Amino acid sequence: MKTVQGSLYVLFQSYKKSNIIFWMIVFSIVSLSFFIDAFFGQYVSFAMTISIPVYIFYSVKGAKILNNTLPYFLKLGLSRMQYMCNVGLFFIVWSLAGAFIISCTHKIITLISNLLNYDNMIIVHPILFFSNSYSFLLTMSMDTVLLLFCLTSSLLLNVIFYRFGILGGYSFIGLLALIPIMMVIFEWYTPLFELVSNTSAFSIIASLLVIIIFIYILISSALRKASAISS
Questions:
Q1: Which of 27, 95, 102, 117 could join 147 in a cystine, given CB atoms 3.0 to 4.6 angstroms apart?
Q2: Using CA atoms, how far apart are residues 29 and 48, in angstroms rounded to an integer?
Q3: Separation CA 188–CA 68 (nearest Å)
Q4: pTM of the prediction?
Q5: What φ, ψ does residue 123 adopt, rounded to 5°?
Q6: What is the pLDDT of residue 66?
């Protein structure tokens, strides 16, 4: 238990500064948006998104976690499986925290907009694809799963670069880039869009959870014999 607590403390401290800076920038942009809307809101409508920048931020940080922390924890005597369990727990807590902040920020923006009669400020969020209203719990659940997906996907990319070097990593990125190209060529995006649009948010969340678990098992297997030094 002390090992888990110590590992989580080190991981949170490693990302504490970047998290504080990121959220300060986000809240500054939100405040600036209200200021601009106060003067120009009668002429233009504003579309604001909090979640998408957070997804990008989490993806960037997840893609660097192995290089920043794995050698350190191995030197402390942790096994690779212990490390993966601790990182997985850290991802869950970090995703819950990020989703909670996003949902609270949405509620605060909506409250301030109603108080100041800012009817032309629109909040863009993936939940609008499935529902026209912002349910706090549903929004938080969706964000938690999407943030977990961003973290595990970027961790998978990090593992490929860590195990197979630059050549293997960029080859994998090249293969991923073929997917949207093939979807456009063969027009697979149309049935995919129809499938997603006709699926409930809860089904999407459950499906993403299954994918996340599969990816994390794959990552754990790939790291079983990973060196303390990246390729």
A1: 95
A2: 10
A3: 38
A4: 0.87
A5: -100, 120
A6: 84
